[in-house]
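Sequence in, structure out.
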Amino acid sequence: MNYLHILLAGFCAFVAYMATGGVMFAALPMLKAEAAKYPAVYRSHEGIMRLMPAGMVAMLVSMMVLAVIWAKMYPAGAGWMQGLQYGALVGVFFEGSFVVHNWVNLNIGGKLTLQQAAAYFVEWTVVGLVIGSIYKP
């Protein structure tokens, strides 16, 4: 495993995740509007901003873990196409382990759940694409 490339791929995946999420929330204001319908479930903007540093650190660690998993899956290397597939698989895993799980446990509606599912699937697919494009053994 190339540890420098793991760090680089993980960091770039983190940047891509944050950028993709930011662009989607800016381009699709209905995501934020739908979540705002559940103030008893979701924090206010100020509350989110107060905790954002902790969330960013957690996401960076998560991206590093995904980069390590990638490096172990493809010790001889792979490319962007396998990265795209990897990201899509991570996206599907995330749908079941987070999005649908939250729909079951939180008092949120199906519309918000579907919007989150679409948005997060795109984000995780981009993450896989970035990791697959950057990591080289």
